[in-house]
Amino acid sequence: MTEVTRKIIHIDMDAFFASVEQLDHPELRGKPVAVGGTSERGVVAAASYEARKFGVRSAMSSKVAKRKCPNLNFVKPRFDRYKEISNQIREIFLEYSDLVEPLSLDEAYLDVTYAKKGKPSATLIAKEIKQRIFEKTGLTASAGVSYNKFLAKVASDVNKPNGIFVVTPDQAQQFIDKLEVRKFYGIGKVTAEKLNKIGVWYGSDLKQIDRLELIRLFGKAGNYYYGICRGEDNRLVQPSRERKSVGAENTFLHDLFRTEDLENELMQIADKVWERAQRINVKSKTLTLKFKYADFEQHTRSKTLNGFFDSKMLFISESKKLMKVEGGFEKGIRLLGLTLSNFIYETEDQKPVQLILEF
């Protein structure tokens, strides 16, 4: 029996948060916009393409962003609005396929091998979806089309913004060979630098390293790297995804030194995390504290229970214990965060259930 070549589309909205703000506020159109920390100690969550020309990027401190782009317009995020538009986009996806896997509010995979409507061509379906999104929301999206998730994801970034790029099976190896490893989905900055140090800059270089050596260097991720540089990725498009953690963090306007001040902030963060855990009806075995010094040096500490965090009192108590440092912190703290993970789902039969992440 001949194996069917899958048709995978990856849709990625263009500068989604910033584009929504420009859509709703015409006075911001054509101007550099940053969504996120409006204070000097804030962090950029998203940047418009006008801002990116100046080097402004997500996760950049607001202070650095303003220095790079003095005319930058900061806007507070409105996640309810982003979710509203995201849901409209997801409705369009579901018209074409039930196999829709959201990665976040602004991107998703679609398996259109057996599409519910439209042309038999995945490329034509991607173009139609892009047009439908624009007509319904006024926003643009970029699309990548290929026979697996890795290639579709990478392809969607080639002709941004408002572009489409197709990688057919017979073009795949040539495309991968010329692709810089830093642009491989699943290879982060640190791994890319490690590969560069051993002379691996492109897909063609990565393909020269055998599987066992990649596993020795990168653990089980080495298996993934071995496959993707040969165009192999058998992961299915999963219409539902299990949530792995829930958390919250806060960056402070001024560095904090006093234990009392830090505990007050920690309690506010703990309230948010506990409420979110209750909302999705899970209990957790693992608590992680994250803190960042004024010089951006970052640390994490974790506690895993034999049982689980069955009360807010226990959660807060263990959070405070993780934050205690003999003699106090050596430097001022600019960020605190808490995360609960290693979930036990509270269902009738105590079996894990898939949580649908809205797109």
TrEMBL record:
Name of the protein in question: DNA polymerase IV
Family of this protein: Belongs to the DNA polymerase type-Y family.
GO biological process: DNA repair; DNA-templated DNA replication; error-prone translesion synthesis; SOS response
Residue numbers annotated as active site: E107
Class of the enzyme per the UniProt entry, highest EC level: transferase
Nucleotide-binding as UniProt keyword: no
Subunit structure: Monomer.
Top-level taxon: Bacteria
Database matches in Pfam families: IMS, IMS_C, IMS_HHH
Stated role: Poorly processive, error-prone DNA polymerase involved in untargeted mutagenesis. Copies undamaged DNA at stalled replication forks, which arise in vivo from mismatched or misaligned primer ends. These misaligned primers can be extended by PolIV. Exhibits no 3'-5' exonuclease (proofreading) activity. May be involved in translesional synthesis, in conjunction with the beta clamp from PolIII.
Keywords from the UniProt entry: Cytoplasm, DNA damage, DNA repair, DNA replication, DNA-binding, DNA-directed DNA polymerase, Magnesium, Metal-binding, Mutator protein, Nucleotidyltransferase, Transferase
Site (Substrate discrimination): F17
A GO MF term: DNA-directed DNA polymerase activity
Enzyme Commission designation: 2.7.7.7
HAMAP family for this protein: DNApol_IV
CDD domains per UniProt: PolY_Pol_IV_kappa (cd03586)
Gene3D superfamilies, A to Z: 3.30.70.270, 3.40.1170.60, 5' to 3' exonuclease, C-terminal subdomain, DNA polymerase, Y-family, little finger domain
